[in-house]
Design brief:
A: 70 residues, alpha+beta, SH3 type barrels, four-stranded antiparallel sheet, two-stranded antiparallel sheet, 2 helices, 37% strand, B: 820 residues, alpha/beta, Rossmann fold, seven-stranded mixed sheet, 35 helices, disordered C terminus
C-alpha cells in the first residue's frame, strides 16, 4: 500500500483504504472513491492531482490524496 | 398541475436541459431559509407542468446546503415525478445519485445526457437493459443539441400520472435484513419507508427533523456494522457502487480503453507544473485587456458619458473630438493671456456664458487684444485639470497667442457643436431635459427627474454594457471547462488567506470596476469562499477611485509618485489581512482546507448558452441591485440640493452646497472622523457623495474647497496634514464602495444580513486603518500621545492578535466542509 500521491501518472490503481472518518471521506465516497474501486492519476501539480475515478475527473489536494491508499 | 423535479450531478448538463425544457418561462427565487437559488419554470409545450430545478448534487447526504435543500424538497413537497439527468460519459458515478432517487417513492425518469459524446467515443448504451435494471424509464438525450429533450419531458409527465414502481436494486442480505427491521418501526407512508430506513441506518444527523417519531435503531445498526466490519454509512455507499458495478457491463459497452482522453491531454498541458501559470496569465491578460482596458472602457464611457451623458456620435465623432480639442486649447491660451494682463473688459467680452455675449464683440476684443501683444511677449497662467482639479502653471508666447486667435477665428468664436458632426445622438438626460424645458416643468421637478431619477438609472445601467462584456468571457471560460481548472491551479495560493482559487478573477476585474468584479464571484461554488471574496473585492482601488487618489496625491502630497502605488498595495494588503482574520472568525470557520472538486471535460461552448448565461447575470443585476442604487442616488440628490437658506427651505444651486441638508448631516457626524484627523464637514460630505460614485469625491471637494483665497489644491493642503490626508485617502479607498457596488454586494450575498455584515466590516476596517495611520503616524513623527493613540495601539494589537492567533478550527476536527 502507498498513498495516492506516490502513484505514477496513467497507471490504474485499486483503492485499498481511505483514512479518516469525517465528512470529507463521505464526500470522497459520494464522488466514487470507494474501497476496491479503480483510480488513475491524470496529472499532478505541486502534489495536487487530477484523477480519473469512475470516468469523472476529480481534482484533489495533496492533503486528500495522501489519505487515499492504493 | 403536475410538478416535476429536475435532479442530477453538477456538470451533468442540468441547467442546459432546464433551459431547453422551459425556454423563457422561468422564475427565480430562493429555497426556504437558505441563500441557494431556486429556479422554476413551466414546460414550453404544456403550461400545466411546473419544473423545479434542484441544485446540482452528488448524493442525498446531509453535508452540503444543496443536498439538504434538494432532499427536503423531494420528501416534504413530494413532486409528482423526478426527471433525473445523468451524464452518459460518466455513467457509474451519476447512477449513484439515481439509486438514491429511486428509493424516495416518487416516479423517476432517467435522461441519459451527452449521448452525442458517448457515440463519438464509440461506446454503446443499452437503453432497455438500463431501464430494466433500474426499474424506471430511460431516455437518451443531448441537452446541448436539444435532441430527445421533449421525449424525456413526455415520459416524465406520463410517469407522474402512473405513479412509482417498486425499487429494483437491493443490497447485501445482512443490510436488507437490518433495513427491514428498521422499516417495521417507522410510521411513514409505505413508499417512503425504504428511504427513511436507509437514512436512519446511515445515522443521518438531519433525518430526525422530517420524522414525527424517531425509533431507536442503534442496536440494529451496531450489529450489522460488526457483521460487515465497516461503518454503516460506508456500507451503504459501497453497496450502491456494488449494485452499479453489477449492472454497468450489461448497460454500457465501451469500445476503446484509452487511458487518456482528449480532455486529459489538454489537462496535461494546461495544468502542467511549468505551463499552468503562464497559460493562466495569458488567459487572464486577454480577459482583462478586453473587458477592462479596451472594449469594457468603451462600453462604460459610451453608457455613462453618451447614453446617460451629453450624447454620442454614431459616426463622425473623431472629427468633432479633434476640432473641439483645438478650440479649447486655443481659448485656454487666449484666456490665459487676458488673465495675465488683467484685461477685464476683454474677459467680459469673451465670456460666452454672459448674457451680453456677442460673437462679433468677442472677435473684435480678442483681435484688438492680440494685436497689442508682441510676438516675443510671454504670459504665465494656471490650467486646471478637470478630472483631478490639479493646477499647472503654463507659459505661452505672443506668437502662440496670435495662432490661437487665428484658430478661434476659423471657428467664428463659436464652440464646435457635436450635433454638426456625423450623426449625433443626444443622451437621455439631454433629451429628457429638453422635453421638460419645453413643457415648462418646475425647477425642483426637473432636478428630481434629471439629477435624481435619470442619474440614478444611469448609475444602475451605466455599468451594464461592461458587465455584459465580462460576463461573456466568464460564461465562455465556464462552459469550455477552463474555469474549474483555474480553481485547481490557483487554489493553493489563495487558500492561505481564506479565498478560493477563483477569487483571482473578481479581484482582477475589481481593479477596473468593482461592480462586475463582485458579480464575477458568481463562479465560486463554495458559499463561504464566495462571501469572503465579495466582502474583500472592493478593497482594491477601482478606476473611479483613481482621480481621487490623484487629487490627494497632488493636493496634499505635492504630487508624490508613491501615493498611487501605495493605494494598490494597501488594497492588496487589506484583502490578505481580511482573509486571514475573517477565516478564523465564527462566520467563516470550517474553512475547506482540503480541496476536492469535479472537473468537467473540456468542450466547445455553444454561442446560445454563453449569451444566455451572460444575459441572465446582467438582468439579475439590474433587477436585484437596481432599486437600492436608484433610491440611494435620489436620497443623496435630495439632501445635496435642498436646504435652509435664511430660515426657509429651498432648492439650492451647486455652489450653495454648504447650506444643504447633506452639509448639515456632514457637520453633525464629522466628529466621528476627528480621531482620524479629518473631522471637518467638507471631507465628511465628500465621503458621503463618494457613495454615489467614488469620482464624486473630487467634484465635491472642488466645490467645497473653492472660494476663499487660493486654488482648490491650496485650500485642501491647508486643511489636511500629510497624515490626516493619507488617513482620508485610506478610509475612502477601503470603506463601503459606491451604491452600485453595494447593490451588487446585496445581490450576490442574497441575504440582507450578510450584506450588512460586508458593508459594516468594510467601514470598520477602513476606520481602523485610518485611525492607525493618523494616530500612530502622529506619535512616531510628532511624538503626540493621547487617548486616540492608545486606542490605535489597542486596535493594532487586537488586529495582530486576530491575524496571528492559531486557527480555532485546528483544535476541533468537526465542521469540515467540502468544495462540491
Amino acid at each position: 500500500m502507498m498513498p495516492l500521491t506516490l502513484a505514477p501518472e496513467g497507471v490504474k490503481q485499486t483503492i485499498r483504504k481511505i483514512n479518516g472518518k469525517d465528512e470529507l471521506r463521505r464526500h470522497l465516497e459520494n464522488l466514487g472513491f470507494v474501497e476496491g474501486g479503480q483510480v488513475v492519476v491524470i496529472t499532478e501539480l505541486n502534489g495536487n492531482m487530477i484523477v480519473n475515478v469512475k470516468e469523472s475527473r476529480i481534482a484533489i489536494s495533496k492533503q486528500m490524496a495522501n489519505r487515499i491508499q492504493v | 398541475m403536475i410538478r416535476i423535479a429536475l435532479a442530477g450531478n453538477p456538470n451533468s448538463g442540468k441547467t442546459t436541459l432546464f433551459n431547453a425544457l422551459t425556454g423563457s418561462n422561468q422564475f427565480v427565487g430562493n429555497w426556504p431559509g437558505v441563500t441557494v437559488e431556486k429556479k422554476e419554470g413551466r414546460l414550453k409545450q404544456n403550461k400545466e407542468v411546473l419544473i423545479a430545478d434542484l441544485p446540482g448534487i452528488y448524493s442525498l447526504s446531509p453535508y452540503t446546503m444543496e443536498e439538504i435543500v434538494s432532499r427536503n424538497y423531494l420528501i416534504q413537497e413530494k413532486p409528482d415525478a423526478i426527471l433525473n439527468i445523468v451524464d452518459g460519459t460518466n455513467l457509474e458515478r451519476n447512477l449513484y445519485l439515481t439509486t438514491q432517487l429511486l428509493e424516495l417513492g416518487i416516479p423517476v425518469v432517467v435522461a441519459v445526457n451527452m449521448m452525442d459524446e458517448v457515440e463519438k467515443r464509440g461506446d454503446i448504451l443499452h437503453i432497455d437493459a438500463l431501464a430494466k435494471a433500474l426499474g424506471c424509464p430511460v431516455v437518451p438525450i443531448s441537452a446541448l443539441k436539444g435532441s430527445g429533450v421533449q421525449e424525456a419531458a413526455k415520459k416524465a409527465v406520463e410517469a407522474a400520472q402512473y405513479g412509482a414502481g417498486e425499487c429494483k436494486h437491493t443490497f447485501a442480505p445482512a443490510v436488507e435484513l437490518a433495513l427491514q427491521k428498521i422499516a417495521r418501526q417507522l410510521q411513514v407512508a409505505e413508499n417512503q419507508k425504504r428511504y427513511f430506513a436507509i437514512k436512519l441506518f446511515e445515522r443521518d444527523e438531519k433525518i430526525g427533523q422530517s420524522l414525527s417519531v424517531v425509533p431507536n435503531v442503534e442496536s440494529i445498526i451496531a450489529q450489522t456494522e460488526k457483521e460487515l466490519d465497516d461503518d454503516s454509512e460506508s456500507i451503504i455507499t459501497n453497496e450502491r457502487y456494488t449494485f452499479i458495478s453489477s449492472i454497468i457491463n450489461d448497460c454500457l459497452t465501451k469500445r476503446n480503453q484509452n487511458t487518456f482522453t482528449t480532455s486529459d491531454k489538454i489537462d496535461k498541458v494546461v495544468t502542467n507544473r511549468f505551463l499552468a501559470l503562464p497559460i493562466f496569465a495569458i488567459v487572464m491578460y486577454l480577459v482583462y485587456y478586453v473587458s477592462v482596458t479596451t472594449v469594457g472602457t468603451w462600453a462604460t464611457d459610451w453608457a455613462n458619458d453618451g447614453v446617460f451623458g451629453d450624447g454620442w456620435h454614431l459616426y463622425g465623432g473623431s472629427a468633432y473630438t479633434e476640432d473641439s480639442e483645438a478650440y479649447s486649447e486655443a481659448s485656454t491660451i487666449l484666456n490665459g493671456f487676458v488673465e495675465f494682463y488683467g484685461e477685464e473688459n476683454v474677459a467680459e467680452a469673451l465670456n460666452s456664458e454672459s448674457e451680453t455675449y456677442d460673437v462679433q464683440n468677442a472677435k473684435t476684443a480678442a483681435e484688438t487684444f492680440a494685436a497689442s501683444i508682441g510676438m516675443e511677449d510671454e504670459a504665465t497662467y494656471a490650467v486646471v485639470d478637470e478630472e483631478t482639479m490639479a493646477t499647472e502653471m503654463v507659459t505661452a508666447t505672443g506668437a502662440e497667442l496670435a495662432e490661437a486667435v487665428q484658430v478661434l477665428d476659423d471657428f467664428d468664436f463659436t464652440e464646435p457643436d457635436p450635433a454638426d458632426y456625423g450623426l449625433w445622438v443626444p443622451g437621455v438626460p439631454v433629451f429628457i431635459g429638453n422635453a421638460l424645458e419645453s413643457m415648462q416643468v418646475a425647477d425642483w421637478l426637473q432636478g428630481l427627474i434629471l439629477d435624481g431619477i435619470v442619474a440614478g438609472c444611469g448609475a444602475v445601467l451605466g455599468f451594464v454594457p461592461q458587465m455584459l462584456v465580462l460576463f461573456f468571457f466568464l460564461a465562455l471560460l465556464e462552459s469550455c471547462g477552463y474555469m474549474a481548472r483555474i480553481a485547481f491551479i490557483m487554489d493553493r495560493i489563495f487558500r492561505r488567506f481564506g479565498l478560493s482559487g477563483k477569487s483571482f478573477i473578481p479581484i482582477l476585474i475589481g481593479t477596473g470596476c468593482g461592480v462586475p468584479g463582485i458579480m464575477a464571484s458568481r463562479t465560486i461554488e463554495n458559499e463561504r469562499d464566495r462571501r469572503m471574496t465579495i466582502t474583500t473585492t472592493t478593497f482594491i482601488p477601482c478606476g473611479a477611485k483613481l482621480p481621487f487618489i490623484a487629487m490627494v496625491a497632488g493636493a496634499i502630497f505635492g504630487g508624490a509618485s508613491w501615493v498611487a502605488p501605495s493605494a494598490y498595495f494597501l488594497g492588496m494588503a487589506a484583502i490578505i489581512i481580511s482573509g486571514i482574520i475573517l477565516k478564523k472568525t465564527k462566520r467563516f470557520l470550517g474553512d475547506p482546507a482540503p480541496f476536492v472538486m469535479e472537473l468537467p471535460a473540456y468542450h466547445m461552448p455553444t454561442l446560445g448558452n454563453v449569451l444566455r448565461s451572460m444575459w441572465e447575470r446582467g438582468s439579475s443585476f439590474i433587477k436585484k441591485a437596481g432599486t437600492i442604487i436608484l433610491l440611494s442616488t435620489i436620497f443623496i440628490w435630495f439632501t445635496s440640493y435642498f436646504g435652509f437658506v435664511d430660515g426657509s427651505f429651498t432648492m439650492l444651486t451647486e455652489e450653495q452646497m454648504d447650506q444643504s441638508l447633506l452639509a448639515g448631516i456632514g457637520k453633525a457626524i464629522a466628529w466621528i472622523f476627528i480621531p482620524l484627523g479629518f473631522g471637518n464637514w467638507q471631507a465628511t460630505v465628500a465621503s458621503i457623495t463618494g457613495l454615489v460614485a467614488k469620482e464624486n469625491i473630487v467634484g465635491t471637494m472642488a466645490i467645497l474647497y473653492s472660494g476663499g483665497m487660493g486654488t482648490v489644491y491650496e485650500n485642501m493642503a491647508a486643511s489636511f496634514t500629510v497624515l490626516s490626508g493619507y488617513a482620508f485617502l485610506a478610509f475612502n479607498l477601503l470603506c463601503a464602495p459606491c451604491f452600485a457596488a453595494m447593490g451588487a454586494i446585496k445581490r450576490e450575498m442574497n441575504s440582507t444580513r450578510w450584506f450588512a455584515f460586508a458593508v459594516a466590516y468594510q467601514c470598520g476596517f477602513a476606520y481602523a486603518i485610518g485611525l492607525i495611520v493618523y494616530q500612530l503616524g502622529n506619535f512616531v513623527l510628532n511624538g503626540t500621545f493621547g487617548i486616540g493613540t492608545a486606542a490605535a495601539i489597542l486596535i493594532l494589537g487586537y488586529g495582530l492578535y486576530l491575524l496571528f492567533r492559531p486557527n480555532p478550527e485546528a483544535k476541533s476536527k468537526k465542521a469540515v466542509k467540502v468544495n462540491a
